[in-house]
Amino acid sequence: MADKDIYNYFFKWSSPTTYDNTFKEPPLTPGVYAIVTIDFFTKKLILQYIGSTSNLFARYHGHPVLKKLRKDNYASFFFKEIPHGFYDEEINLIKEWKPFLNKQHNK
Predict the structure, then answer these.
(1) What's the pTM value of the predicted model, to 2 decimals?
(2) Domain-by-domain residue ranges, the chain?
(3) From CA 71, how far away is CA 89, in angstroms rounded?
(4) Furthest-apart CA pair in the chain: how many Å?
(5) Of the candidates 104, 107, 4, which has an alpha carbon nearest to the alpha carbon of residue 49?
(6) Are 64 and 101 in contact (CB under 8 A)?
(7) What is the mean pLDDT of the chain?
(8) What is the pLDDT of residues 72-82, one digit of tens each?
(9) Quick check: 106 pLDDT over 70?
(10) 33 closest CA partner among 7, 59, 8
């Protein structure tokens, strides 16, 4: 997917790593999330990972992929609260967007 598509889709979700009107701390509720990085050489956005969880707050503060990506470069965490069906939404998003690190669903 093109950068513009990533930006227009995921940057409308809430995020604790933004400075605009979508800023929000992840709640203790279920939902889906996306981890996006930027390639500073090409200036392109890279959708690294999509996941779902029953507790967005805990996942944000303890996600191993997010911690690893933050060691190497800037990584943003975007989320959308979904009270029911969040796992199905995760699978649909992975199939549609094919994030780099979601290998199990990219076959």
Answers:
(1) 0.88
(2) 3-105
(3) 29
(4) 39
(5) 104
(6) no
(7) 88
(8) 778 899 999 99
(9) no
(10) 59
